[in-house]
Design goal:
There is one protein chain. With 110 residues, this protein is α+β, with helices and mostly antiparallel strands. 30% of the residues lie in helices and 15% in strands. The strands form 2 sheets. Strands 1-4-3 form a 3-stranded antiparallel β-sheet, with helices on one face. A two-stranded antiparallel sheet has the order 2-5.
Length: 110
């Protein structure tokens, strides 16, 4: 449903913009903890593995407008003065319970 909402919203935006879904995030450690409670074995951290994903850089955020559930990056716009990147670190974090429900809903957990 969220993917369809994103596509429908993006189709209504002007040409040349990039639309990003404002979404919640979770650390891989939290996902692993939920999975371990359901019998999945943790393999550990891998070399070069990222701890956070950057969805929009600090520079891109200066050209981004907030539309509630979506962020709209328009390189021609200078409306905002946000001084931060939009990353998984500063997005709303899912709780252990939220992750459990989400993983069960998408049949990752039995």
């Amino acid at each position: 449903d969220e993917a369809v909402d994103l596509l429908n919203f993006a189709l209504e935006c002007p040409e040349g913009v990039v639309v990003s879904k404002r979404m919640s995030a979770a650390s891989l450690g939290d996902v692993a903890a939920v999975m371990q409670t359901n019998g999945v074995v943790k393999v550990g951290h891998r070399p070069g593995e990222k701890k956070h994903e950057e969805l929009l850089s600090e520079e891109e955020m200066r050209h981004t407008t907030d539309s509630g559930d979506f962020l709209i990056y328009n390189p021609a716009s200078t409306q905002n003065t946000w001084e931060f990147a939009y990353t998984s670190r500063n997005a709303k974090q899912l709780t252990f319970e939220d992750l459990s429900v989400l993983l069960e809903e998408y049949l990752v957990l039995a």
